[in-house]
Amino acid sequence: MIVNKTHLVMGKSKSERLFGHLMGVVHQDLCLNCGACAASCPWGSIKLINGRATLSGNCTACGLCYAQCPQTVTDETLIKKIFGSSFSTPLGTYKEAYSGCARNPEIRNEGQDGGIVTGLLEFLLKEELIEGAIVMDRDSEWKTQPQVAVTRREIIDSSGAKYTPGPILTATRDAVDHYLLEKMAFVGLPCQVRAIRVMESEEPVLRRITNRVELVLGLFCQHCFSYEGLFEEKLKKEMNVNPSDVVGINLAKNGSLTVKTDDSEHELSPNSIDNCIFEPCRICRDFSARFADISIGAAGTPQKYSTILIRTDKGKEIFRRAVDRGIVEAEPLEDTDPSIKDVKNQSLKKKKSAEKEIQSRREEGKSLPPKISGEL
Ligand code: SF4
Ligand code: SF4
Ligand code: SF4
């Protein structure tokens, strides 16, 4: 691969060029475990080991990993690049809002919250608008597994919330380098959507990946848990519940967690799992994946349905085609209960809670992402 190093470092201060600088993000518990740095390094020198970006090869100090890290870019920069104008609402900008579900009963039942994400991906695959989708799967122990799903079955099997983060951006590089995909969809949590948007709004060397992303689907996210905190400490050690015995998890709007095994059901109060929350989530202000083409989640709609926020022209066109082809059924969100107000309230609640935490970290001199704190 030929990389124009001069171009990569252009416009960046010397201190922003080193992998070592990225370590500031990693070592201060700000790393989202998104994998964007690993996907971006021209030399493939970064690996995510135990959820942490780690240098595992030569570093030419090009600075790309730091520039692509979603924790080093401001919201304002991204908003302008994607939407052309600024917005300041916690919910972000959207063109249309629906409540909907997949029409296919198999997908509706097996997919999350009515199967909208699964239904849309299956539609894109069938219509050959994509050759595969970047999704998050999990293993039998509930450890996240970034995946390039290229069949209908793989798409269906990867559905459902995973509750812990994983380096999904690494799969975008696999999709290009190993699967040789020309067209793909990307499904991610708000921070992961942010990461793919940073990649596509930056250096041309990354466009070999992002030019092939046809659609970005974002998932609503209240917060995640650290795998060690929830599955190893809380479930395994404290409650004697083996992760591989867990058959279902549900995170309620009030923050309580229901964990089911074949022969038991455990209700965990928000207080009892607070210390399991993935640390960077405490300062995350994006509930509804504001940078996605289409954002999807359960808030705002009845059970077995999803709220669908169409944010971009591309998202609007694809969703319209999916509705016209009878893949999804959708009605304007205002006509359903509890409606868009619920999504707005949850977005605002998350933003306020994050800002309170940011303020308190500032006062206590604790670490914050550089573009929030001006430090690092
Ligand atoms: S060579 Fe890789 S690890 Fe080094 S600064 Fe560039 S992107 Fe980062
Ligand atoms: S790009 Fe993602 S994985 Fe890499 S250091 Fe930043 S937040 Fe962590
Ligand atoms: S709360 Fe934010 S940082 Fe945490 S997993 Fe969700 S989107 Fe990512």
TrEMBL record:
PANTHER family: 7-HYDROXYMETHYL CHLOROPHYLL A REDUCTASE, CHLOROPLASTIC (PTHR31332:SF0). One of its GO terms (molecular function) is oxidoreductase activity, acting on CH or CH2 groups, with an iron-sulfur protein as acceptor. It holds the Pfam family FrhB_FdhB_N. Residues 330-376 are annotated as: Disordered. Residues 22-51 form the 4Fe-4S ferredoxin-type domain. Residues 354-366 have a biased composition (Basic and acidic residues). InterPro entries: 4Fe4S_Fe-S-bd, 4Fe4S_Fe_S_CS, Co_F420_Hydgase/DH_bsu_N, FRHB/FDHB/HCAR-like, FrhB_FdhB_C. SUPFAM superfamilies: 4Fe-4S ferredoxins. This is 4Fe-4S ferredoxin-type domain-containing protein. It comes from candidate division MSBL1 archaeon SCGC-AAA259B11.
